[in-house]
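Residues pack. One example:


***
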Amino acid sequence: MSELLHLTEAARWEAARDAGAYEGSTRGRTLQEEGFIHCSLPHQLPGVARMLYGTEDADLVVLVVDPDRLDVPVRYEAMAPGGEEFPHVYGPLPVDAVVEVRPWRPADGVNR
């Protein structure tokens, strides 16, 4: 399985490290509301960043997730019927499953 990437606000990741697990999904939704953590494959990340954050000048990070360190299932599902499938983590993301954190600036449109 390819590496999984999750784009999030830097402050949300810092709170997750303190708590020991990342439980938030995209744009402030919780697992209770959405039921999964939306991830991307490397080629999908720029489109996800544009869709969720546009050209906002926010402090974002990309969490690089090792799927072998997850205790919960990953399912590949399309966001719309017939659309491209994205990986979704069904359950909290353990902090130790995140093997790298990369800064991301939406206004730049690139991962730095």
Notes: The chain has three helices and nine strands. The CA atoms of residues 58 and 105 lie 7 Å apart. The helical segments are 10-19, 31-34, 45-53. The mean pLDDT is 82.
